[in-house]
Prior knowledge:
By secondary structure, the chain is mainly α. It has a single domain, classed as MFS general substrate transporter like domains (Growth Hormone, Chain: A), CATH 1.20.1250. The model has no long low-confidence stretch (mean pLDDT about 80).
Amino acid sequence: MELNKQISKRNYYSFLWHAVFLALAKNFMDVDIIIPAMMVDAGGSSLQVGMLIAIMLGGGKFAQLFFAPFLNNRSAKKFYLLGGINTRIFALAGMALLFYFSSHINDSFLVWSIFILISLFTISGAFANINYTDILGKSVLQEKRKSFFSIRQVISSIIVFLSAFLARRILIAYGYPLNYTTLFFIAAVLLGIASLGFWKIKEIPASNFKIKGLVKFIQIITHEMRLNKKLKNYVFLINTQGVSLGLMPFLILYAKKNLSAGSQDIGNFLLLKVIGGVLAGSILFYYSKKIKYQYMLYITSIIAILIPLSILILPGSIFFPYIFLAGGIVFAIHTISTEGILLEVTNNENRALYTGLSGAGNILPVIFPLLSGWIITEFGFRLFFILFMLIIFLSFYFIYKLDCKK
């Protein structure tokens, strides 16, 4: 079976169905704001928050490296995708139950149960993502991909914006822990509805080359990293600019500890982050045929540096909430550009493998939050912000070396 316009169109809208309901669910399980705030409210320390961020933003993607050999040997991946999504739904339902009964659980058990369930949620998401990327790449026509990423960002951001009001209302209306019980329950239901879109996908099987054994896999990794310069620079790029995705959870920690932020403030931060994503997605959708991924990456790094710099210059400023607006822009542009570039440097035969290999680019995003939690505990936020800016500065070199033509 070959990919044609009719199949591509059907799959295009199936992926959009998933994107719409995932967007509705996102605010109720937001990894940048809701989950870090939840960990602090549950009694987690700065170091434990750092550990949780490392798991969510780096650990899951790093796990893709180990899933890649297994999934690369499967020509059809639809049911593996559904298996990963259903495991995420189970983890969210578990979180809802955990907080519902949290008054009968001691704090230490609660915190470590959160770690287990969030780890399951993150790792199953990484497993699903390899399948998602592979199916999207081979089941939607190439000329439709950039418009898909952009319109997905626009539609998702608008829906996320609307659902942010409901998430904010739940945070304010219900006290702890009922607020988090409600948030995670709604997220589980919406993610279940989102997964229905994947059942309608008509997958185009690909004849991937087979990987026999761990030794062969390591040989392939070294060979590809040595010969494929674009892949190597892509891995170094997400190893540096990728730490920008871990900034907002630490800004929540900063706001909780230094500015005494409450539930209403957290809800406002969430709204501003979403507005930033809507603005970025709308502009990129309008200019999708004109702006190159490389320019988008430069913009991402510049804004990422300006965020902590503004806090260092004006600590405790009345403008602090608006850095979440900038954070939403960074998240949106980084996500669109890195997903698009990955599809451009791969083909139907090696896409699952390369998606797994790109997980190697998340070594620093795993280490950095762990190190940051310790740095904040021992030395405060100033050193953390300086170190963050230095790492983002390194990304400019790899953006230049990537030399992406599209």
